[in-house]
Amino acid sequence: MDAALVRRLVDTQFPQWAELPLELLDPAGSDHVIYRLGEEMSVRLPRHADAIGQARKEAEWLPRLAPHLPLAVPVPVGVGEPDFGYPWPWAVSCWLDGEVATVEALADSSEAAVELAGLLTALQGFEPGEISAQGARGDLTGQPLAARDRATRAAIAEVDGAFDAAAMTELWEAALRAPDWDGPPVWFHGDFHNGNLLTVNGRLSAVIDFGGLGIGDPACDLMIAFTLMSAGSRAAFRAALGVDDATWVRGRGWALATALNAYTYYAAVNPRVAAQTTRQITEALIG
């Protein structure tokens, strides 16, 4: 997915943008290669098959969600088709200025924590008529926490020594025992960590990367409390969101499982991911 391929894809499918420069964004995350297109757009191409549904999902739902959310979201302007040997749909979206939210800047900010609780409250309250009371479409159905059991236990065994395996096992089993979500299915972001939040002048400005968008148990989005926040701001976040004990424990389980997954895949080759996921595991164990 070099610049020459992306140039051909853009120029043939969106000739109105053929004169705009392309610039590789690096690092761009594990799921997509991202190029900036001119000053106002980005081109996102999936790196692997697990990410291939995101372009069309975001094109369908983000324009509907955007008016209801207190932070900006990417606005899709086109979905490209496979061509020139590239096998999957890809997306062109409006560029969002900002810097990735950092622990150093926001961990102790109760104001930011409450703002994020407001974002999730707005997301969970979105009620499109296309989703029936009987449940979500297949591409929007949330995965249960128990589906991660085998992989999470294997990861706990793999990182024993680097982290407290007994404490992780205790937390994981508590999360699995916690009562299931008994409210109506609600919308969740699905990958809600600080790497998917942008700031401008130190303030939250946008949330990006809605590939995990779905409907079900909102506990998965509580991972932001353990990736970004400290104990004080986390308490403010929980109070503002009104999270019950069972949902909070499941959220800690989601934070542990997702952090372990990323740690075992990337920590040895990516110090940035190692630091982020080490913090996430540690904070999830604290609670």
Q: What secondary-structure arrangement, pairings included, does this model have?
A:
Elements: H1 3-13, E1 22-25, E2 32-37, E3 41-46, H2 54-65, E4 76-80, E5 90-94, E6 99-100, H3 103-106, H4 110-124, H5 149-158, H6 165-177, E7 186-188, E8 197-200, E9 203-207, E10 214-216, H7 224-227, H8 231-241, H9 245-266, H10 271-286
Number of strand elements = 10
Distance between the termini: 41 Å
Structural class: alpha+beta
CATH C-level name of the largest domain: Alpha Beta
Largest sheet entry: 5 strands, antiparallel
| Overall mean confidence score, pLDDT | 93
CATH architecture of the largest domain: Alpha-Beta Complex
Estimated share of beta-strand residues: 5-15%
Helix segment tally: 10
Spatial order of the strands forming the largest sheet: 1-2-3-5-4
Radius of gyration, whole Å: 19 Å
- CATH fold description of the largest domain: Aminoglycoside 3'-phosphotransferase, Chain: A, domain 2
User: Which residues form runs of ≥5 with pLDDT under 50?
Assistant: none
Please provide the ordered H/E string of secondary-structure elements.
HEEEHEEEHHHHEEEEHHHH
Description:
With 287 residues, the protein is α+β, with helices and mostly antiparallel strands. It folds into two domains: 3-94, Phosphorylase Kinase, domain 1, CATH 3.30.200.20; 99-286, Aminoglycoside phosphotransferase (APH), C-terminal lobe (Aminoglycoside 3'-phosphotransferase, Chain: A, domain 2), CATH 3.90.1200.10. The protein is built from ten helices and ten strands. A hairpin with a 2-residue loop joins β8 and β9 (203-207).
